């Protein structure tokens, strides 16, 4: 039987303070690396990306989000990365190479088209893609073009230095090999011992005299 003199409000507060221990305790949260932690953002602009579908010969929307140019902190190479809004799924991911040509999209002054030989946004296997990007205004589109072409020059210089270094290493290794190669020693005349000399003299004395010439 309940106490008629008890305060019902106090009983509700006591029930509200009840604490239950969780049956399963969650472990520490594991951070997922995107490899973007080792890169600096040199360009970032919101845009809409399209991909040309060769089977149907038409443009398909790839996604809307922030298009970024990322420069690696160590080797300085620049790549283009774009993630979709909300899901953050990658819709473009490739290095910027010197053979890519930005071309204005027909009928738009704020859109660019380029062909990429090796994009790895959909899978680990690189695929050839033709992309088109559309920005909010002409200023943003021109800013992207300027940074894109600057990244092309940067990656081209890095590739040239890598090739020169690769050519110098075999030459240096060949020079070291020649320096370490032992030189052939000249043959020394055989030393004649005293016993051999004595035997030669004795043999000459015992030999019969030569007959006089006729």
Description:
The chain is an alpha+beta fold and 214 residues long. Helix content is 30%, strand content 29%. The protein has 3 helices and 7 strands. The protein has helices at residues 8-16, 138-180, 194-206; strands at residues 39-53, 58-72, 78-83, 90-95, 103-104, 111-119, 127-135. A 7-stranded antiparallel beta sheet has the order 4-3-2-1-7-6-5. The longest helix is centred in the C-terminal third of the chain and has 43 residues, at 138-180. The chain is flat and about 95 Å long. The N and C termini lie far apart (165 Å).
Task: Show the helix and strand layout.
Elements: H1 8-16, E1 39-53, E2 58-72, E3 78-83, E4 90-95, E5 103-104, E6 111-119, E7 127-135, H2 138-180, H3 194-206
Antiparallel strand pairs: 1-2, 1-7, 2-3, 3-4, 5-6, 6-7
> What summary fits the major beta sheet?
7 strands, antiparallel
Q: How many DSSP-defined strands?
A: 7
pLDDT < 50 runs, ≥5 residues: none
Mean pLDDT figure: 81
Tally of individual helices: 3
Summarize the amount of helix as a percent range: 25-40%
Oligomer: single chain
Which structural class do you get from the secondary structure elements? alpha+beta
Spatial order of the strands forming the largest sheet: 4-3-2-1-7-6-5
How large a portion of the residues is in β-strands, by DSSP E?
25-35%
State the shape: flat
What is the chain-wise order of helices and strands? HEEEEEEEHH
| Separation, N- and C-terminal Cα atoms | 165 Å
Structural Rg: 42 Å
């Amino acid at each position: 039987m309940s106490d008629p003199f008890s305060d019902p409000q106090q009983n509700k507060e006591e029930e509200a303070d009840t604490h239950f221990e969780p049956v399963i305790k969650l472990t520490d949260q594991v951070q997922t690396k995107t490899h973007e932690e080792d890169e600096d953002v040199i360009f970032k602009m919101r845009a809409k990306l399209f991909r040309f579908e060769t089977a149907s010969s038409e443009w398909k929307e790839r996604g809307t989000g922030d298009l970024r140019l990322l420069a690696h902190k160590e080797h300085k190479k620049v790549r283009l990365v774009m993630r979709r809004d909300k899901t953050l799924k990658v819709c473009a991911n490739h290095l910027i190479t010197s053979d890519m040509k930005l071309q204005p999209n027909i009928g738009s002054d704020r859109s660019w088209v380029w062909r990429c030989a090796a994009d790895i946004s959909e899978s680990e296997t690189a695929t050839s893609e033709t992309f088109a990007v559309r920005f909010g205004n002409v200023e943003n589109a021109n800013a992207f073009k300027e940074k894109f072409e600057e990244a092309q020059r940067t990656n081209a210089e890095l590739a040239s230095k890598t090739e020169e270094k690769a050519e110098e290493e075999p030459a240096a290794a060949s020079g070291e090999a020649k320096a370490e190669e032992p030189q052939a020693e000249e043959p020394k005349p055989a030393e004649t011992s005293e016993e051999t000399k004595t035997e030669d003299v004795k043999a000459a004395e015992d030999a019969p005299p030569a007959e006089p010439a006729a």
